[in-house]
Amino acid sequence: MKNETNARRGFIKIMGVGALVAATSSFAAGKKKTTTTVTLSEDQKDTLFFIFQEEKVARDVYITLGKLYPTEKTFANIQLSEQEHILAAQVLCERYRIDTSNVNLSLEEDYIGQFELHAMQELYNNCIAAGQTSLLDALKVGRLIEVTDIADLDEAMEGMPSDVVNTFTNLKKGSLNHLAAFESAISRES
């Protein structure tokens, strides 16, 4: 996708070098259901696919870090919510005919940490490398993911149809809750 290395995405810059609930259309569209489907531009489709992949990065990072630090329940609790976020974004991708067939959402070990977008693969790898140094660093990775998700969702909402804005607003609320959980865990660990 052409937006793969889009400089406006803060995730890669910041990390740089160095339960399962089925989503329904009503969840994906928020409380409002729309009866007409708007045609998205290619940039909007790229943005929607990026958000879908970004949610998978969060889930997969939390699964992997949760295995490294099994006594820290923050990762396990939030990964379930991230699965809901992925499914909500996938509903939108399907609605707007964005192909997600090459993205394997399986929870099998072989598919955790595997991404279609090179930028997302690099992000996952950098997050895991940063989180392996200590539990505190892993929790800080979680905080960074949520802060970045919130900023990316805010930016991604601009110019989108109401069903996408409603879904992204719901995802942002979830990310704000996740951020609070990571802040609490960081305070406890510090």
Provide a compact summary of the structure:
This protein is an all-alpha fold and 190 residues long. It is built from seven helices and no strands.
Name of the CATH first level? Mainly Alpha
Instruction: Provide the number of structural domains.
Output: 1
Tally of individual helices: 7
Q: Which range best describes the helical content: under 10%, 10-25%, 25-40%, 40-55%, 55-70% or over 70%?
A: 55-70%
| Through-space gap between termini | 40 Å
Computed structural class = mainly alpha
DSSP strand (E) fraction?
under 5%
> How do the SSEs run, as a string of H and E?
HHHHHHH
User: In the CATH hierarchy, what is the superfamily?
Assistant: Ferritin, core subunit, four-helix bundle
Low-confidence stretches: 1-35
General description of the model:
With about 190 residues, the protein is mainly alpha-helical. It has one domain (about 40-190): Up-down Bundle (Ferritin), CATH 1.20.1260. The protein contains seven helices and no strands. Helix 3 packs antiparallel against helix 4 and helix 3 packs parallel to helix 5 (about 120-130). The longest helix has 28 residues, at about 160-190. Mean pLDDT is about 85; it is low at about 1-35.
Write the layout of secondary structure elements.
Elements: H1 10-15, H2 25-28, H3 42-68, H4 73-95, H5 118-131, H6 135-157, H7 162-189
Helix pairs in contact: 3-4, 3-5, 3-6, 4-7, 5-6, 6-7
